[in-house]
């Protein structure tokens, strides 16, 4: 077993950990994360617009009468998430190259906006279609952000920049240094989208359509859950590794679901990140809240008794590093198996519960530190059945963890007894100097 785990760590976990720190993937990850405050705040206005109360109530009728006004904050935040993410990716990628990060973010935004074609309306002027500013345009945002900053880097390394005298303030010098890269990017994007009339968003949609479809399938939701648990079992932050690749897709699903709710159409996707957050990672990766309850109710070793009491409150708020490293689960064959496979079981149950209509799909980004029942209720727009599913999944994880936990607990108990006997023998063999 140990030889097999050493093999996996050497040939899979270590290379994947290095991949997660790849410059462009890290910039995408940090850019997406930087947009979360806007996504969270914007999605909360969807709950206000469509409150979880009967349609006959005064609150619901008021929300429908003022629906346009209520949705304005949503449309200026979550609905245009790709615009915020574009700036974040450009900023972070430029920063990693030691270029001016502000210029990197700005040139990325300019490039992204040039993928959109304004529409001229009588008595209104030019109007920019917003459909591709949300989750639908996320992959395009990633591509043009990387392209724009790479142009900046090329110009910088080849000295294709305007150099200002040393007496010029640094902020002014940086602005002129970005002038040539900005001109090139703007001219290039104008040639593609305006002169040649190429719809880049349609091309990207066609290219990523198989990935988008696969990511929302049962296999597509089970694969990241398995890999995240697998990497955590070696002490590698699983969501940092897998999230660098999967999070843009999850955010695309979330944006599409929110747009569908705002438009009054059926919600299209099962598996935004909120699906995993509230129905799979209950208590954190590995659904370890069930393990903490097993510690509280069944622990016989003094160490696990104390650990259960210590980690209960953090686990209720989905912080489980103390459980993962304190138990430990890392490199612990007795607990790795349930840690990896329990989330896959709850994922399967939750997936079919959503597909079959037993619960509503998630479309609201609630803060991840909320207790799971509350977060699930909010993320589904106030579906009480989501709370029931969370409680069912906690019960399942608790029951499955018990036999594995008891084996490990007995091992620690035997070690504690052996250590106690050794201490007694050592104490009795000491000479009495009284």
Structural overview:
With 434 residues, this protein is mainly α. It has two domains: 1-22 and 216-423, no CATH class; 23-208, no CATH class. Helix content is 71%, strand content 1%. The chain is built from 20 helices and two strands. A two-stranded antiparallel sheet has the order 1-2. It is globular. It starts with a helix and ends in a 5-residue tail after the last helix. The model has no long low-confidence stretch (mean pLDDT 88). It is a multi-pass membrane protein. The phosphoenolpyruvate-dependent sugar phosphotransferase system (PTS), a major carbohydrate active -transport system, catalyzes the phosphorylation of incoming sugar substrates concomitant with their translocation across the cell membrane. Keywords: Cell membrane, Membrane, Sugar transport, Transmembrane, Transmembrane helix, Transport.
Notable characteristics:
434 residues, mainly alpha, 2 domains
Helix fraction bin: over 70%
* Mean residue pLDDT: 88
Q: Which overall shape is indicated by the principal axes computed on the Cα atoms? A: globular
Number of strands: 2
Taken as a percent bin, the fraction of beta residues is under 5%
Spans with pLDDT under 50 lasting ≥5 residues? none
Q: Please give the domain count.
A: 2
Structure class: mainly alpha
- Please, what is the oligomeric state? single chain
Main beta sheet strand tally, sense and closure: 2 strands, antiparallel
> First CA to last CA: what distance?
52 Å
**Radius of gyration over C-alpha positions, nearest whole angstrom:** 26 Å
Strand arrangement within the widest β-sheet reads 1-2
Please work out how many helical segments DSSP would assign. 20
Sketch the topology as an H/E string, one letter per element: HHHHHHHEEHHHHHHHHHHHHH
